[in-house]
Amino acid sequence: MKIRSAEFIRSCVNPEQFPTGAVPEIAFVGRSNVGKSSLINSLLQRKGLAKVSRTPGKTRAINLFTISTDDQTLSRFVLADLPGYGYAKVSKAERVQWAPLIEQYLSQREQLRMVVVLVESRVVSTQDGETIAWLRSIGHEPLVVATKVDKLKPSERVAALRRLQKGLGLDDGRMLTVYSSVTGEGRERLWNVLKEGCRT
Hints:
The protein is of the alpha/beta class.
């Protein structure tokens, strides 16, 4: 798939800023420092589209991007980059401020076709499992992507991914999609799943 254009739309801090129209949307969520910005840049083959920060918890709003491709099954869509969750240094007041916006977007946004949950391949997190369970409870079947697989030794990979799959409650036939923003592994597979999910 060729990316024709990838442009930042706006940062939304309240629902009134969400765009109108029927363009399908795909949301990316995950714990702080899971590699979300790096994956988005790698997926779209743009170096600085999503801002990569060494400070976890940097994203403070829902950042929206409009994407155009040469594939007719997913020729145009909006990518939503949601604030990372689970970073202890983010104040309680900030978390309280984010929560209603994020929950409203994920539970009520009619244009939202898919939710991609990013999890680190080497870490089994209770928060990741709770997020996946909550998304299922509101009607989403999230696509779970294990990031940073390049950091796993070949001898570790199978056991680590099985442990992650079981720990997240994905041992009912739902497989993980793996991704490396360093090597590009998983990029084609992820695009294929996104296209299939937005088609249905």
